[in-house]
Amino acid sequence: MITQTTEYALRAIVYLADQKQPRTTAAISAATQVPAGYLSKVMQWLSKSDLVSSQRGLHGGFLLLGDTEDLTVLEVINAVEPIRRIHECPLGLHGKKLCPLHQKLDDAAKSIEETLGDTTIADLINVPLKRKPLCSFPMTTTKS
User: Fold this and answer.
1) What is the pLDDT of residues 54-86, one digit of tens each?
2) Closest Cα partner for 18 from 132, 141, 143, 142?
3) CB neighbours (10 Å) of residue 35?
């Protein structure tokens, strides 16, 4: 349903949402299990869409811009690979009037778009620690 690129972008954003300081590509890669080389490309797309900022230098890295209460999952997806909608017959047979098959496919895409547009990054991270996305971070377990 979503591409690996989209999955990687969402992992990176969710990880950065829990961070207070910039994180390097290497740190994000290790925490999210996304290959560093590919993550660099994903982070460039997220930066071009103004979802993250990048800083060079000793204390540099990527930082999430904006508020997690406002940033939607759909915005992250649209930054890397937007959901494809069907606006006219892909076969060129019906013009703008979709056949039943293509209408159902577009209805499904619209429903997914609406659901993801109604889901914020805060919705994903403001859950009990044991249900955090990506399961393994943040690793703030304390032993009593």
Assistant:
1) 988 778 899 999 899 999 999 999 999 999 999
2) 132
3) 11
Q: Phi and psi at residue 127, in whole multiples of 5°?
A: -135, 165
Q: Is residue 135 over pLDDT 70?
A: no
Burial of 117-143, coded b for 16+ CB within 10 Å and e otherwise, reads eeebbeebbeeeeeebbeeebeeeeee
List domains and CATH numbers for the chain.
4-82+121-131 (1.10.10.10)
Number of other CB atoms surrounding residue 15 within 10 Å: 24
Report pLDDT digits (tens) over 5-52: 999 999 999 999 989 899 999 999 999 999 999 999 999 999 999 999
Which two tokens mark 133? 């996305």
The model's pTM is 0.83
